[in-house]
Sequence to fold (277 residues):
Amino acid sequence: AYVWEFSNGKWDPKVVHLGSAINRAVLCCSWSPDGTRFAVGTGAKLVCVCYFEEEHNWWVGKAIKHHQSSITALAWHPMHSGLLATCSTDQHVRLFSAYLKEMDKGENFGKFGTLLREIPAKAWVRDCKWSPDGAVLAFVAHDATLTTVDITDDYRTETVKTRLLPFNSIAFPTTTTIIAACNDCFLYAFTKSGTSWTLSGKLRSDAGVEKKTSSVSLARAKFQLEANMGQATAVDKLESKHQNVISELQVKQAGDDWVVSSSGYDGQIYLWRPKDV
Fold:
């Protein structure tokens, strides 16, 4: 891995050695809220937490084990950089202590790498995010479910099942709102009422524009579709803003006037606000 630092008007890379045990690809990476460390999830069933050693003037990596398959996503607790959540294709979400005695002066979650909690899912887990206040951890799995875990209420777990395609990414802009990016290229909102979460619906999107073609071209296209795909009509443009799978959601601004950004394989980035729900 590399950490790039801006100094003297240019960006300088510094190599971070993740360790010889990591012999598979890096799948995800995330900085802690205070910027003192970052975590790397790999296909080698390991998470590597990296931090800077002032004494030796280099970046050091420490491995976290306990995973049975690849790590797909990472989420740092917004209040404590010593608490890290991981998602894996082994159908589990885990909470680990990322406490570093060299720099952590606050709450001690135990020895580095200690497994604090293991939460099972029914399919591989795609993404996880913390609520702004750090009380709830939410994650989405490949079975099109959203699960919330309230760590302030004895890790009370609630799962919302949907009949949609799987979700790829989620954002947690307020303590009562979760935005999820679905494989159908739309965003969906989940809202909390009392202690329960429900699927509120699809976020508003621009309608697709039909493409006009000549009758000859239309007939030829119809024949090709029936021969190749077994269908007589084609969609020129999706009704969603994104014209391909949405890969990532990020909270740009939290609170009542939240702003969430979405990026997709169509090369586009869009901003979403409460009025779109």
User: Anything to note?
Assistant: The two ends are 38 Å apart (CA to CA). The longest strand covers residues 167-174. Confidence is low (pLDDT under 50) at residues 207-214.
